[in-house]
Amino acid sequence: MDSPLSGAALTETTIPAEALRVLVLQGGGALGSYQAGAYQALCHHEFDPKWLAGISIGAINAAIIAGNPRERRIARLKEFWEMVSSSSPIAFAPLLRDDHARSLFNEASAAMVATFGVPGFFKPRFPSTPFWPSSPHAVSYYDTSPLRETLLRLVDFDRLNDDGIRLSVGAVNIATGNFEYFDNTQRRIGPEHIMASAALPPGFPPIEIDGQFYWDGGIVSNTPLDYVLEQERNEDLLIFQVDLFSSRGSVPATLFEADEREKDIRYSSRTRMNTDMNRKIHNAKRAVRELIAKLPDDLKDDPLVAELTEAARENTVTVVHLIYRSKAHEASSKDYDFSRLAMTEHWSAGERDVYQSMRHPEWLERPQADDTMMAYDLSQEGSENIK
Fold first, then answer.
1. Is residue 3's pLDDT more than 50?
2. Three-class SS state of 91
3. CA 64, CA 39: separation in Å to the nearest integer?
4. What crossing angle do the helices spanning 70-84 and 145-154 adopt, rounded to 10°?
5. pLDDT tens profile 320-330
């Protein structure tokens, strides 16, 4: 699959050498090819992530990246996305001359996916037995065993666990309702952990791991950003967060638009909330440091002061936030429209948004002391600092 941006000229960036590079990938089903395109463009700019964190389709993309040598990652991503979109060829594109025709095509494609499944990903259960509880498989409409075979073929799990790239994927423990992360710095990751992160009910079955059953992490949170910020408080971070649903949008005028808008709000990651919370923590830590500096010398040796000093230490965080913006012809089925046409459009959009982001070298500079966290959003109108 060739992208119209594949031959774009590379630009010099100012990525700070001391910052830990992190790629955060949200869930979003068929929209995930946007993340693959974004990753391809990031590779052109020498952004080599040392930590990958993903939910749902983001976990699958992250596993393919972490489980392959750098020179093979793009090819493996293309192989995956071309496979899952292979049942809907791109030959119809010249006939789709307006948004109405394209919307009809999208809905037809999504209906085919709902009926017949997606190659290498999931297939419908025949006969479906949702009213005859006998096993975990009875609580889902589709069988995801093809995904396991695909992961074993496209991902080298020994490399994923031993190559030094950190991988974190989120899932929900069905029995407890708690959000859990499977992190290869804490345990070995296998295909079941990736499948658990992508087991969205009631379409997909729960995945059993160590006697516990898990569903898609997007049920609780559709972005791993909180986990990354919570886990790393010492080393400076440069994060590219690639989201597939936008929290911002127009007030819907029809039932179809309301359905899409509800899904966007439900699955968007609300980066502004994260940055606001981080800013409050930053202000509290700064106040503690300033207070400690005013203490008399005889109190500064107190063990409690040493404990507070350690707690008030901070790293700096820069988040470049890329969000897929829906087209006029897309509806609530956009996350299960696995047509080849939609896949190539999303991939190209991911590339384009990264190239636009890289036109702002100031985004990649280390935040100053008064702003330990900076977040930038490539909006439809241009760039925006959402600190």
1. no
2. coil
3. 12
4. 150
5. 989 998 877 78
Which residue has tokens 């977040």? Answer: 375
- Tell me what the pLDDT averaged over the chain comes to: 85
Q: What are phi and psi of 17, to 5 degrees?
A: -65, -30
CA-to-CA dists, residue 154 to 119, 120, 147, 178, angstroms: 14, 11, 10, 30
- DSSP H/E element including 239: strand 237-243
In angstroms, the Cα distances linking 129 to 165, 320, 366 are: 41, 45, 55
Strand-pair category, 237-243 with 317-323: parallel
Cα separation, 46 vs 121, in Å, equals 31
> Average of pLDDT values for 308-331?
85
More confident residue, 369 or 232: 232
How many residues does this entry show for the chain? Answer: 387
Residue 284's pLDDT is what? 87
CB atoms within 10 A of CB 148: 15
Which H/E stretch holds residue 344?
A: helix 340-357
Strands 237-243 and 142-143: unpaired
**pLDDT grade for 181, boundaries at 50, 70 and 90:** very high
Distance CA 261, CA 245 (A): 9
Contact by Cβ (8 Å): 237, 22: yes
Would you state the pLDDT for residue 244?
92
Judged by DSSP in three states, 43 sits in: helix
| Rounded mean pLDDT, 216-231 | 91
> How much is the average pLDDT of 119-145?
78
Q: How far apart are CA 288 and CA 290, in angstroms?
A: 5
Integer Cα distance of 177 and 347 in angstroms: 34
Find tokens 């459009």 and name the residue: 345
Give the residue carrying structure tokens 């005859």.
Answer: 132
Distance CA 30, CA 190 (A): 23
pTM: 0.87
DSSP character string of 316-328: -EEEEEEE----T
Q: Which whole-number Å values give the CA distances from 20 to 161, 237, 366, in the listed order?
A: 19, 5, 11
pLDDT surpasses 90 at 42: yes
